[in-house]
TrEMBL record:
Residues 562-573 have a biased composition (Acidic residues). It comes from Ephemerocybe angulata. It comes from the Eukaryota. InterPro entries: LRR_dom_sf (IPR032675). The lineage of its organism: Eukaryota, Fungi, Dikarya, Basidiomycota, Agaricomycotina. Residues 554-573 are annotated as: Disordered. This is F-box domain-containing protein.
């Protein structure tokens, strides 16, 4: 430092220099941003018309939002498309000016919902709110602000939180509303006579759950409805004439889902022909009914359904199924609906013992490729118990008499936990189906089926006195070619093992020489090892295995393997 120069003067000059440099940096950054903006403006994407870029944003937002189906997914994932609009200022400006981009409001947090409402300007609105996305019922004001735009609402879906205050919004006219799906709170609130009575001429989809309403007449059932679902609601059932008139008023109905709402009285008849005048269902693709055996039976006596419709029937009083009511139901069903006219090719029987339900799924042979995984008819029998009047084989015998089960090729038994199938029941229910080729056991005991095969009187041991008489008998399961075991424990019975299964099957096959050979498929099973597979394969058993090896504690498949010999098998059996 030169002599006599104050120290403060130098510090001040240094700060001034730094300030000038900082201002220079800011200016250069501004110039750089401007240069980048001009550069980006010349890129291909930024030369796209605003309409095209907006369309890209709309497609992206739709794809991401529609993919948001798991309530456990992070909430932000549903609106992650917003990050794409932040790539550059031009994209941001285009996005903010595209009202339609913000008009599909998935309520995840209040501030975002309110921002989307503001940015949507006057565009038609879609709004989705579920209890899972808003369990604490936060910021009611924003929700009511959205619903107050009734003239703009196109689609509204509110799950498990539709209270009286929300219902009040639907007393106003909703001229462009096409879809309304509401699930009420507990205890249920009243659906009043003002509900949509101000006008909803565009309504196509109406789904109501967990409400109370005075009568069927309260419902806004218009000619444009294609989807009607009313479940879990307390309502006085419509009279049969009122119900039939309502169906006549909805000629474009594609989906009808009703729970305990079918008429209980007599259906109206034509005074001239003294016959029920059935309503048209030309477009019906899905029918789901939950009701009493009697009411469902009467319903099918009064309607004609297109054969392409898929039916789901759940009975609230299945204990009333008996040897008289079940055939009567099947008769009316067959006259009303010809969806299985070519016969049943696949039957799935599934038990859910946690809720005491037994399900029958019937697959026809005349469905298109898109319907191969959709049963034509599903029947759920609730309050299922071994103490019921009718057991599984009784149902199958009735189905055989009332439906065309002759083409049956595949039978799947799934999750039979409490339902017991004796060998005699197997024989009575299924042994005479001449085209039954495939048996599938999924998480279900198959020992009784094995015993039914083993005890077939048509295949008595040649040394037995009954052998000559047995030769004249028709064999059980004559077309059987494949048996599949999935999620099955080969030691589900005390003292049993995969060896027992294999040797009994070998014995059965040695006597079924006049029938087709049988292939066995083992997948995801317990207590079946590579040792079992290798040795059973060596015996000549046609078996495939997915190599899934899950041996329970204390089991050693290698230690109990047995060298197979035909004489040993004959002595055992």
């Amino acid at each position: 430092m030169p002599q006599g120069q104050p120290e403060g003067v130098k510090a001040s000059a240094l700060e001034e220099t730094r300030e000038k440099l900082w201002q220079s940096i800011i200016c250069k950054e501004i110039e750089l941003r401007e240069a980048k903006t001009k550069y980006n403006a010349t890129s291909f994407l930024n030369r796209l018309p605003v309409e095209i870029l907006s369309k890209v944003f709309l497609e992206l937002a739709s794809a991401i939002t529609n993919d948001f189906i798991d309530i456990l997914d992070p909430k932000g994932r549903a609106v992650s498309w917003i990050y794409v609009t932040h790539v550059c200022s031009h994209w941001r400006e285009v996005a903010l000016d595209c009202a339609a981009l913000w008009s599909d409001i998935l309520y995840l947090n209040p501030s975002l919902a309110e921002a989307m409402l503001s940015r949507s300007k006057k565009a038609p609105l879609s709004f989705k709110l579920s209890w899972y996305s808003n369990p604490k019922w936060e910021s009611k004001d924003v929700i009511h602000k959205i619903l107050s735009h009734s003239e703009r609402l196109v689609s509204v879906e509110i799950g498990s939180c539709a209270n009286a205050a929300i219902l009040a919004h639907f007393s106003r006219a909703a001229p462009i509303l096409e879809k309304l799906s509401l699930c009420g709170v507990y205890p249920a609130v009243d659906l009043t006579s003002t509900f949509l009575q101000a006008g909803a001429p565009s309504l196509k989809h109406l789904a109501l759950s967990q409400f109370q309403f005075e009568s069927w007449a309260v419902l806004p059932l218009g000619p444009r409805l294609t989807y009607l679902q009313i479940v879990g609601s307390a309502v006085q059932r419509p009279s049969a004439p009122q119900f039939i008139a309502s169906i006549h008023a909805m000629p474009h109905l594609q989906t009808l889902i009703l729970e305990k709402l079918l008429p209980e009285g007599e259906y109206p008849t034509d005074p001239v022909y003294n016959a029920i005048y059935p309503p048209p269902f030309p477009a019906l693709g899905k029918l789901s009914l939950t009701d009493t055996v009697e009411d469902v039976t009467n319903f099918f006596s009064a309607v004609n359904l297109p054969e392409t419709a898929k039916l789901f029937l759940e009975f609230s009083d299945p204990h009333l199924f008996d040897e008289e009511s079940l055939p009567g139901f099947l008769t009316n069903l067959g006259e009303s609906w010809k969806g299985l006219k070519s016969g049943v090719q696949k039957l799935v029987m599934r038990e859910d013992f946690t809720i005491d339900v037994l399900t029958f799924e019937f697959y026809g042979g005349d469905c298109g490729e898109a319907d191969t995984h959709r049963p034509g008819l599903t029947m759920e029998v609730g309050e299922w118990s071994p103490a019921n009047v009718l057991q599984v084989d009784d149902f199958i015998v009735a189905f055989t008499a009332g439906m065309n089960l002759a083409p049956l090729q595949t039978l799947r038994i799934s999750f039979f936990e409490s339902t017991f199938f004796t060998p005699d029941m197997w024989v009575r229910a299924f042994s005479r189906f001449e085209q039954l080729q495939t048996m599938e056991f999924e998480n279900s005991d198959s020992w009784e089926f094995l015993e039914a095969l083993e005890s077939d009187p048509a295949f008595k041991d040649e040394r037995s006195p009954q052998a000559q008489e047995a030769a004249a008998l028709a064999p059980h399961f004559p077309a059987l070619t494949t048996i599949k075991f999935k999620v099955f424990d080969f030691e589900c019975r005390i003292g049993s093992s995969a060896w027992d299964f294999g040797f009994i099957f070998l014995d059965v096959l040695s006597r079924r020489v006049s029938c087709p050979p049988i292939t066995f498929d083992v997948s995801q099973c317990t207590n079946f090892s590579s040792a079992h597979y290798q040795q059973l394969k060596m015996t000549g058993l046609d078996i495939t295995w997915d190599c899934h090896e899950d041996m329970t504690a204390g089991d050693d498949a290698n230690s109990d393997s047995i060298d197979y010999d035909e004489d040993d098998s004959e002595e055992e059996h």
